Amino acid sequence: MITQSEFSLSGADGKLIIGDITFDEKNPNMPIVLFIHGFKGYKDWGAHNLVARYFVSNGYRYIKFNLSHSGVPADNPIGVTDMETFASNTFSKELFDVNAVLDYIGKAYGAETEINVIGHSRGGGLAIIEVANDLRINKLITWSSISSFDSLWKKEQETEWKEKGKIYITNARTKEQMPLNVALLEDFEENADALNILEAAKKINIPWLIVQGDDDVNVPFEHAQKLANTNLGSRLVKIEGANHVYGASQPYNNETLPPLLFKVCEKCLLFLNEN
Q1: pTM exceeding 0.85
Q2: In this predicted model, what pLDDT tens digit does every residue of 46-68 receive, in sequence order?
Q3: 29, 36, 101, 249: least surrounded by Cβ within 10 Å?
Q4: Is 220:200 a contact under the CB 8 Å cutoff?
């Protein structure tokens, strides 16, 4: 029987990380898939719970979590509504959270447990940097991953950002103006080497599957091409006609995965099951 349990951890700046573990009660020793969501995303967005069930029904334990500064409140985790926390996020804080979750997995399931990571969009960038510096991960999968963190804003915004201490980005779905404090830019500049995704990509020597739709307007296909060209041991899979979220949406009310996301999951499962 597939079931889901929740956990919470102390994340960056003491903010809570809320996560959940989907698993089959009859098979307690399954290898783990850890999912890292992207910018403006969260663990229960769209079809994420259906994805979790897919991997569990195929022999894996699936763990996902909300980054502590995602702007999704712990007491009402149904969307990005805590704009003050969202604004104060940085990439270093997100990497702190990813490490905290990996520490938790190690304590809960033991150091010998197989851990595979899926990172989506900005979460893909985090996953690449984590894997380049962390020996606990067996295989890496990136979905629609960025190849540089500064692709998330326009270069010409940086002057205004530094002058005003804040910029706003538009949520495409709700049209809401979402604030980003200059701490995000400062963190990126101060830790430029540590936060260089392409440099991290060069260091990855575990199996790596790069998945990318060719109809992605959020993260163009050239990002995947750059990552694949940087690490020739990786494998690039193009999903024809797929957008940034492979046909999912928020809310997503169907009981089955979108066809293109199902295709992605199938390809990932084949990759994970390879020796």
Answers
A1: yes
A2: 999 999 999 999 999 999 999 99
A3: 29
A4: no
